[in-house]
Design brief:
Pfam families: FMO-like. Its cofactor is FAD. This is NAD(P)/FAD-dependent oxidoreductase. Keywords: FAD, Flavoprotein, Monooxygenase, NADP, Oxidoreductase. With 535 residues, the chain is an alpha/beta fold. The strands form 5 sheets. Strands 1, 2, 3, 4, 5, 6, 17 and 18 form an 8-stranded mixed beta sheet that branches. Strands 7-16-8-9-12 form a 5-stranded parallel beta sheet, covered by helices on one side. It contains 16 helices and 20 strands. Helix 14 packs parallel to helix 16. The chain is globular and about 70 Å long. 33% of the residues lie in helices and 17% in strands. The structure holds ligand NA7.
Length: 535
């Protein structure tokens, strides 16, 4: 590993996930020097940390992969439609090796602070190991779901059995045979891990605060002919991805859910359910995301599916969400609802019997104490802002990013923030990020940031900073788009609603990755309009 004591580089990159890896590769191609700090012992970011049983991506592998290298695209042997965490981690490692990235990555090292020095016009970046690096650019490639969150319940430290957190899962395989397991949380991590843990556990008790809408993934091995067809067509497919709404090309709906007959509507939902694709569900009708009545048709239909699958009527009711479909992140699963038909699997509805405390023996709700050998926390993240505000970032005049964002994140394009010169965020709040295929969004941001740095160097410019006016307009625009949708009606992590005390504001840009890309390209074409560039 490189020595970093008081080094000077062109750019410090925080995080060696898919953003950090590609950034490093791009900056090097411009002959810039960069150092990547990574808290983990390896590359892969999300796919390094989230090793829980059943962890998979819910965008198809042939689409959830880098497009920047045609050789990589043509050669990489994807095995499954929805690859497992180990398969994706293997891909990240392959990329790190293939492009010789490791030599500029410092592992086991968390960045703790970064301060802008106006005199030198550089960032001084410090880590937990007392490294101090000065850099012209600070690039936060820290991910949107990377600051884990435990439930707000007393006594977690008192439990005498074994505790696991899905996002901090140990590297070795865990055997649940003969164990009484309790799991808190029913987002994607809970929905994916519950069926797998249930396969071997003696008993599994699921503590659910809010149910998820989940679709069967219909995962399978990829066929040689479909891989060949995609490889043949990859350039056109990548273009379609970039121009799409969510980074996955999909047939654009033309009809309202309310203008078609019930059988026609149900057939559309059935087709989406059969397809095992979330984007297919979300694009069944034009007004799915904007009209409550239209959305209610999908909600009723999915409730029907849950009631068909789950035999115990009370359990089925408890599993039926009441918020609009898609306003919290929907899930893809393998045997999720079916698992609740197993006699050793139990559902506890925390809306009826809230969590009271974790005890030495297990979990106490308002109704009773449940005893466990193992507790699994699948309780999510301080999404989108947590990983950014956990670093003490100080911009111009000591301005704290965390403090200036206390009433919600404020960015221009989700890339820069006023008061923080030469700071870039990859897939920051105010960009489509979590509403899209992350790799498509990551590549777009990395390319854009790389281009702006090249522009600065070409023009002999030293700094770039979002203007307060452009930022205000962007924040208003992001809010306005959200206000046309049903998103604000759910208590989601998109809204910051899962973290007590966090300001409620819809954080991602919901106008689609295609529209967003055009805006970013326009800004660049007009000489980085809305940014101040200086010598
Ligand atoms: P999520 O989707 O944020 O899920 C976390 C779950 O944990 C969710 O069901 C929460 O209920 C529950 N939770 C959180 N805090 C508590 C407390 N205090 N008490 C009870 N239950 C709680 O995180 P995941 O890791 O599953 O998925 C993250 C993303 O990864 C996912 O959206 C995909 O993009 C991939 P709540 O809904 O807040 O009521």
């Amino acid at each position: 590993e490189p020595s970093t004591k008081t080094r000077t580089v062109d750019a410090v990159i925080v995080g060696a996930g898919f953003s950090g890896l590609y950034l490093l590769h791009k900056l090097r191609q411009q002959n810039l020097t960069a150092v990547v700090f990574e808290a983990g012992t390896g590359v892969g970011g999300t796919w390094y940390w989230n090793r829980y049983p059943g962890a998979r991506v819910d965008v198809e592998s042939l689409a959830y992969s880098y497009s920047f290298s045609e050789d990589l695209e043509q050669e990489y042997p994807w095995e499954e439609r929805y690859p497992t965490q180990p398969e994706i981690l293997k891909y990240a490692n392959h990329v790190a090796d293939r492009f010789d990235l490791r030599k500029d990555i410092v592992f086991r090292t968390r960045v703790t602070s970064a301060a802008w020095a106006e005199d030198q016009r550089t960032w001084l970046v410090r880590t937990e190991h007392e490294d101090a690096v000065t850099a012209r650019f600070l690039i936060m490639a820290t991910g949107c779901l990377s600051a884990p969150k435990l439930p707000e319940v007393p006594g977690i430290e008192n439990f005498k059995g074994t505790s696991y957190q899905t996002s901090r899962w140990p590297h070795e395989q865990i055997d649940f045979t003969g164990q009484r397991v309790g799991i808190i949380g029913t987002g994607s991590s809970g929905v994916q891990s519950i069926p797998v843990i249930a396969e071997t556990a003696d008993s599994l008790t699921v503590f659910q605060r809010t149910p998820s809408y989940s679709l069967p993934a219909r995962n399978r091995r990829l066929r040689d002919d479909e891989i060949a067809a995609m490889r043949e067509n990859y350039r056109a497919y990548r273009k379609a991805q970039r121009e799409s709404g969510a980074g996955v090309p999909v047939e654009v709906p033309t009809k309202s859910a309310l203008e078609v007959s019930e059988p026609e509507r149900n057939a559309a939902f059935e087709a989406a359910w059969e397809s095992g694709s979330l984007v297919n569900l979300l694009s069944t009708f034009t007004d799915f995301a904007t009209n409550q009545q239209a959305n209610d048709t999908a909600k009723r239909w999915i409730h029907g599916k849950i009631r068909d699958i789950v035999q115990d009527p009370q359990t089925a009711e408890d599993l039926c969400p009441d918020y609009p479909v898609g306003t919290k992140r929907p899930c893809l699963d393998t045997n999720y609802y079916e698992t609740f038909n197993e006699p050793h699997v139990h559902l506890v509805n925390l809306k009826r019997t809230p969590l009271v405390e974790v005890t030495d023996k297990g979990i106490r709700t308002s109704e009773q104490e449940h005893e466990f050998d193992v507790i699994v926390y699948a309780t999510g993240f301080d999404a989108m802002t947590g990983a950014l505000t956990n670093v003490d970032i100080r911009g111009r005049d000591g301005l704290s990013l965390k403090e200036t964002w206390s009433a919600g994140p404020r960015t221009y394009l989700g890339i820069g923030s006023a008061g923080f010169p030469n700071l870039f965020m990859i897939t920051g709040p105010g960009s489509p990020s979590v509403l899209s295929n992350m790799i498509v969004s990551i590549e777009q941001h990395v390319d854009w940031v790389n281009d702006v740095i090249a522009h600065l160097d070409r023009e002999g410019l030293r700094t770039i900073e979002a203007t307060p006016a452009a930022q205000d307009d962007w924040v208003d625009h992001v809010n306005l788009l959200a206000s046309y949708t049903l998103y604000p009606r759910a208590n989601s992590w998109y809204m910051g609603a899962n973290v007590p005390g966090k300001t409620r504001v819809f954080m991602p840009y919901c106008g689609g990755v295609g529209e967003y890309r055009k805006k970013c390209d326009d800004v660049a074409a007009r000489g980085y309009e809305g940014f101040e560039l200086a010598r």
